[in-house]
Amino acid sequence: MAQVRKHDPELVAEIAAHYEAILRLVGEDPTREGLVKTPVRAAKALLDVTSGYRTDPLAVARQAVFEHAGSRMVIVKDIEFYSLCEHHILPFFGKVSIGYIPDGKMIGLSKLARIVECFARRLQVQERLTAQVCSLLSEAMPTRGVIVACSAGHLCMKMRGVEKQDASTVTFDYNGEFETDAGLREEFMRLCGQ
What we know:
Helices cover 42% and strands 26% of the residues.
């Protein structure tokens, strides 16, 4: 079930006023039947998709760090995300796969998805999103290495600009043993279907 978010009514009203002005500036009539409630809906939607600014990803991660005696790679793959490109404020979306080698600790699997969401729900670029997830996981608990792969489609490339419908972008970031051991990187990529 989707989470219902409460929004500060004053903030919603302030953002809605800007949306109403934008509608006028692009040649629309915000008082016509289909648009009367659009500024408020858009304001609430914007607050939802930028909720990462109001969430501390390190605190989220540290809520579920546990002792772990194993040392093999842990992978959570195909975590879907939706974000907004900071250059055009158009959506980009795709999947993130995360691998890490525990060093005495492990993290609750759902927290990996929550970390991705914390960073994705901001004005963002894919390269930074990938690096932030990798860095945060290394900060949240001891690991012998972290690797993150992100594959996404960007509406700023698909519906404007070069208009290339089939273009996708893949980014990677890694640290620790993944930096020094190409075999570990290859294993992660093979297991994630990269």
